[in-house]
């Protein structure tokens, strides 16, 4: 469905990171296609089903804002985890160095 693919691409266009944007686009498109299949069971008309799916998906600018915020939270958690691992690693290495320097080994 070209219309749904275009809608998915537009919905995630605010995400800056290209890999995250592609991943989000695939997820949105998959959700749209699932909804489309369900609508086709009721309408048996592709144009009506597409229109209903797009209408049900929500107000586009709000959706973009929600996707952007979800993306920001995801990056934030990832960066915090990396920073925590780095700090713990430095602390452990410093501790080992101090024990070695003062004859603990």
Structure, explained:
It is a single chain. The chain is mainly alpha-helical and 105 residues long. The N and C termini lie far apart (67 Å). The relative contact order is 0.11.
Determine the structural class based on helices, strands and strand pairing: mainly alpha
> Topology as H/E string?
HHHH
- In whole angstroms, how far apart are the ends? 67 Å
Helix content bin: over 70%
Average pLDDT value? 83
Q: List unreliable stretches of 5+ residues.
A: none
**Bulk shape:** rod-shaped
The largest β sheet comes out as: none
Helix segment tally: 4
What percent strand?
A: under 5%
Q: How many β-strands, per DSSP?
A: 0
Radius of gyration: 23 Å
Helix and strand topology:
Elements: H1 2-11, H2 18-43, H3 46-57, H4 60-101
Helix pairs in contact: 1-2, 2-3
Based on the model shown, name its key terms.
105 residues; mainly alpha; 86% helix; 0% strand
In short:
The chain has 105 residues and is mainly alpha-helical.
